Amino acid sequence: MRSYALPRSLPLRARFLWKLVPAVLIVGIGDWLFYRHQLYGGYLGLFALAVLGALLAGRPVLWRDRRSWATIAAAGLFALAMIRDANQLAWALFWVAAGMAALIPATARFDDGWRWFQRLLWLGLRAPFGPLIDLRRLLQVRAAGRARRWTLHAALATLALPVIGSVVILTLFSAANPLIERFFSSLLLPDLSPELIGRLCFWGLLFMMIWSLLRPRLARRLLPTFDGQGDWRLPGVSVASVTLSLLVFNLIFAAQNLMDAAWLWGWAPMPKGMTMADYVHRGAYPLIATALLAALFVLVTLRPGSETARTGAARRLVVLWIGQNIFLVASSMLRTVDYIDAYSLTRLRIAALVWMALVGFGLAAICWRLLRERSAAWLINANLAAAGLVLGVLCFVDLGAMAAGWNVRHAREAGGQGVTLDLCYLDALGDSALLPLLSLEQRTDLRPEFRERVQAVRLRLHGRLEAELPQRWTLLGQRRRDQARAMLSNRPPVAMTAGARDCAGALIQPPAPVASPPPARNVDPRAVRALTGEIGK
User: Residue 531: how many CB atoms within 10 A of its CB?
Assistant: First the structure.
């Protein structure tokens, strides 16, 4: 097999320069994109692809190690997600995947997520100091290869006296001789303006980011994974106490789940004095917190291989209890869905539903681990794999467009069963709400006042997209602009009442003019004296 790794016999200076070239190129590309031309949006994805190319060019060992192929492919996928629609989630996942690709060749195998979390954390903490550490090492190696074997400390000690003395003498001479002063003034560095300092800091940030991938270092010591097997002696925890606790917990959970099954799932009418909105409004998050505490109880008291886990009654009770917890999570999700039906859909509520589904998966994984006596590393990896898969899919899903489309379809003004449409929230979603607002604007059954407000918000979002797209281009933004232009091609220009409008598209009434006091009239002094004289009489 052909080797793509740099030979170890290659001098350190040559290997250092091999990595320095792509690092400098990345700094130049980042400066050209982000600083000189102020290009963001999908250009972040192009920059991420350039970083990935520099990583492959600077570390040819990645071509030979097949374990790195999956992480490189994942990093490329997240870069494409940023080209489609730049978001913070895809940016963060790209650097996680790129960091794993850089570290994998130095590891024996992929062990577990807890160890990889420590490795990536160390990679990030070391990044600001990596270039200085490598420069110091290069100077030490070069000094060691010389005949006199000077160290950096010895070189500084030798050069300190002549350098300091020369600086003092030249300073005095420049103060006494204007020609010398003029010569040194011409050699001074340019004025360090705040803009230049900011640009240099930006270069340093880019260099540190790429250098940490080109010259990674593994953490020497890692905290071991919590095994979670065997007996763990805790005060008050025994087979009898755990079994009794599971029995009581099952009864309490059964009461809560029966109430949810009767009222939330529609098996029985609500009691008098309580509506479905009141029952749902109490919130799903306390129930999710209860499920998480249940998971912690199982992890601590029923460890695989322990005496409690080997007890048949305890095993049956814990399986029943975890099943009830999963039903509780499903009820929490239904509460959230009913809350959305009663009010509106937001990005945070979609994220909450996804998180609840992951909690349910984690509970099922805990039960499987107990029954199959899996290790703690297996449990960590299973949950991380599920979370990574879900987050990877969300990189390609616009939650804002989902929320805007649902709210428009279910708005009361559009004939739906939901609440009145929150145009301020749609305005905050940005161009994600542009196409749903356009489809709403084309309806013929809207009230004129409401249609004008929808048009105002749509025009603001459309104008913002047209203005920002050249510098914040994304594939999704370009497609939305093209679709909006196609939908508006056969429509006459919109005529609206002129004036400033708020986030909901309503006209802002100008403040009422303040009434000015009447002007003072000129009074004849003779009349005042005459009046004073009359009063005196």
Answer: 11
Q: For residue 55, how far is the Cα from the chain centroid?
A: 23
Closest CA relative to residue 86, chosen from 395, 377, 305: 395
Q: Based on C-alpha coordinates, what's the Rg of the chain?
A: 35
Chain Cα centroid distance, residue 168? 53
In this predicted model, what pLDDT tens digit does every residue of 1-36 receive, in sequence order? Answer: 333 445 444 566 667 778 889 999 999 999 999 999
CA angle 85, 89, 90 (to 5 degrees): 55
Measure the CA–CA gap between 318 and 12, rounded to whole angstroms.
59
Stronger pLDDT, 157 or 27, i.e. the higher one: 27
Contact 455, 424 (CB under 8 A): no
- Partners of 507 in the β-ladder: 501
Give me the phi and psi of 211, to 5 degrees please: -70, -30
Helices (H), 302-394: 307-310, 312-342, 347-372, 376-394
Rounded distance between C-alpha atoms, residue 19 and residue 14, angstroms? 9
DSSP β-bridge partners for residue 501: 507
Residues 6+ apart with CB under 8 A from 493: none
Q: Which whole-number Å values give the CA distances from 164 to 153, 158, 160, 169, in the listed order?
A: 16, 11, 6, 9
- What is residue 507's three-state secondary structure? strand
Summarize the confidence of residues 448-463 as an average pLDDT: 92
Which segments of 110-155 are extended strands (E)? none
Q: Say how far apart CA 246 and CA 240 lie, in whole Å.
A: 10
* Amino acid at site 150: W
Say if CB 328 and CB 253 are below 8 A apart: yes
HSE-up of 354 (CA within 13 Å, CB side)?
Answer: 17
Q: What is the pLDDT of residues 309-366, one digit of tens each?
A: 778 888 888 889 889 889 888 888 888 888 888 888 999 999 989 998 999 999 899 8
pLDDT digits (tens, 9 = 90+) for 248-283: 988 998 888 888 787 777 666 766 666 655 566 565
pTM for the model stands at 0.81
Tokens of 99: 């960091």
3 state DSSP class of 70: helix
Task: Tell me the residue type at 520.
Answer: A
Give the helix/strand (H/E) hosting 212. helix 194-214
pLDDT digits (tens, 9 = 90+) for 123-150: 999 999 888 888 887 777 666 655 444 5
CB atoms within 10 A of CB 534: 8
Among residues 405, 394, 395, 393, the alpha carbon closest in space to that of 429 is found at 405
The predicted pLDDT at position 287 comes to 73
Tokens of 331: 């009820």
> Is 304 in contact with 378 (CB distance < 8 Å)?
no
- The backbone torsions φ and ψ at residue 494, rounded to the nearest 5 degrees and listed phi first, read -85, 130
What gap in Å lies between CA 512 and CA 517, rounded to an integer? Answer: 16
